[in-house]
Specification:
This protein is α+β, with helices and mostly antiparallel strands and 202 residues long. The protein has five helices and eight strands. Helix content is 41%, strand content 22%.
Length: 202
């Protein structure tokens, strides 16, 4: 019983940490640090706060399910060791928070502009770095790294574009915004190597 209480206390602390971290996502404000302005020709590839909030809520459901499952497993394991066979599933669901945290940080730390006429992609980082490249002529190879399955309707993953001297990554989170469809429809036309991972961290 003492062990169960300790585990529940630990999980309560984890829950507090998760909720606190996720609330921070809603308070982050992106500065207008670039000179490029969206137009009929140039689209800014973004994930608005309302879309991120919906993704967070769905992922939280998966994480809380994993935590609840973990508590049940630990309680049952005191009498039935076979219950531990469900432990990897529980940890997988809880681990979705780490993937979410990684992808939101990556998405918030850059601005992406797509010129739908000549297929140029401009990426500006918070540090002030900028790279401009053409999707047709400058990309040596395309890769798509994604999770093994959807969890509560959310599939984590990202596109990786290999240039001559560096790699560019674009999170699946941006696909949730219907206004970004033009870019992702274009990416779907290129030959792409697809890889699946349990935790597709960028």
């Amino acid at each position: 019983m003492v062990k169960v209480i300790l585990v529940i206390t630990l999980l309560a602390f984890i829950l507090y940490f998760i909720v606190r971290r996720l609330r921070m996502f809603g308070t982050q404000i992106r500065n207008n640090y670039g000179k490029i302005q969206p137009s009929l020709r140039i689209i800014e590839i973004t994930a608005p706060a309302n879309i991120l909030k919906a993704i967070v809520q769905k992922t939280l459901f998966s994480v809380f399910t994993g935590i609840l499952l973990l508590v049940i497993i630990l309680v049952l394991a005191t009498k039935f060791k076979i219950a531990l066979i469900m432990l990897p599933i529980s940890l997988y669901l809880i681990g979705q928070f780490l993937v979410l945290n990684n992808h939101i940080r990556h998405t918030r730390n850059q601005r992406i502009f797509y010129d739908k006429i000549n297929d140029d992609l401009t990426i500006e980082s918070l540090e002030g770095n900028r790279i401009v490249f053409n999707l047709i002529t400058d990309v040596k190879a395309y890769k798509e790294i994604k999770s093994v399955q959807k969890n509560n309707g959310i599939l984590f993953g990202y596109y990786e574009m290999i240039l001559a001297k560096q790699k560019i990554t674009i999170s699946y989170l941006l696909k949730e915004n219907a206004e970004n469809k033009t870019l992702f429809d274009k990416l779907a036309h290129f030959p792409t190597e697809v890889e699946t991972k349990l935790f597709p961290v960028i």
